[in-house]
């Protein structure tokens, strides 16, 4: 029997996610980034990735992400070069300026998130963040119950 004492997870997470994205938007605007551009910068972390792998990992269509990559490259935030193992593929990496913008943007976003997290008791905060990180790291197949 379903536990009707709580709303469905999506019913709780989606409105929260939308509200968090609205809080992030002024920070992104101040740094000259779109949400997708920020996702690309975060997706590159410290590693070199192919365009296709990055698009899959951030949930973007690999053809629609090309203008975003073009813009980030034009701004000097990423580098694209041919993959020596597959000339059809392009390898992406962050430039030092891309790292700086990513880190600055993330710090400003997380400072805003702190105001929300500060509403939780320390133990609840730690548990919430641990659970969220665990669930977010699950493979998509596991989330779908496959």
From TrEMBL:
Q: Name the SUPFAM superfamilies on file.
A: Winged helix' DNA-binding domain
Q: Which InterPro entries match?
A: HTH_MarR-typ (IPR000835), MarR/SlyA-like (IPR039422), WH-like_DNA-bd_sf (IPR036388), WH_DNA-bd_sf (IPR036390)
Annotated Pfam families: MarR_2
Q: Which GO terms describe its biological process?
A: response to stress
For the HTH marR-type domain, which residue ranges apply? 6-137
What GO MF terms are annotated? DNA-binding transcription factor activity
From the Swiss-Prot or TrEMBL record, give the protein name: MarR family transcriptional regulator
Instruction: Write down the species.
Output: Actinomadura barringtoniae
Organism ancestry = Bacteria, Bacillati, Actinomycetota, Actinomycetes, Streptosporangiales
